[in-house]
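subagent[fold] <- orchestrator: predict structure for attached chain, return tokens only, no commentary.
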Amino acid sequence: MTKPYSSAIEIGADRLTVGSNSFPFLVKRDSRARRMLLRVMPRDGAVVLVLPTRASLKSGQKFVTEQVDWILARQEERPEVQPWQDGASLPLYGAPHIIRHRPGARGGVWVEGNEIHVTGRAEHLPRRLRDWLKRRARDEFGVAAREMAERIGLSVRRITVRDTQSRWGSCSAHGNLSFSWRLLLAPPPIARYLVAHEVAHLKHMDHSVAFWHLCAQLLGGEGELRAARGWLRRHGAALHLHG
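subagent[fold] -> orchestrator:
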């Protein structure tokens, strides 16, 4: 069956255009991928094509063309990003908090009950709040990661926090760990799972049975592991809709 938009598709180096719609477009190679995959990023609608190592770019572009109806359906389902401003709701550790702008106060950013207070000018509120969340995430994830690494006789070299859409964390061959600061918005067991996941990669740079066993061991059991992975599958995308 011919796709209704097939004649109006243009695939560039960094944009996918379908009729009058245009989306950021990225191609990623994944040595672990067994087949071609498509993802639509919740925050900016970017279309990500994941290719196995041996798949050609031409075959990937053909796959995108065949899946254009699916892509457009996912774009239409994508909820709106929630801007950070006075009165907006932001989940912190999984609990809803109200953002309060305090232009006349001092102290940067702080939490009182279920409110997050942000000082300074209104146009600087998103940046101030994001910087505060990143510092908090770096400190908390760093403490947890080093404690877990010490338990298995290893060490963490450096901790960084980023705002990636395609992965929640990473571990380099040199012992550097990176995490999405947005995990701070999820319930604490979710961030703890991701910390355990990356610490386990310090010993096993794969997703073997031994890796998952160590990950569960760091968390205290298989139940915690399954629960956290399930939560991320169901609710992880929503964490990208804030800010």
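orchestrator: received. Logging for downstream: The chain has two domains: 6-77, 126-241. The domain at 126-241 is CATH 3.30.2010.10 (Zincin-like).
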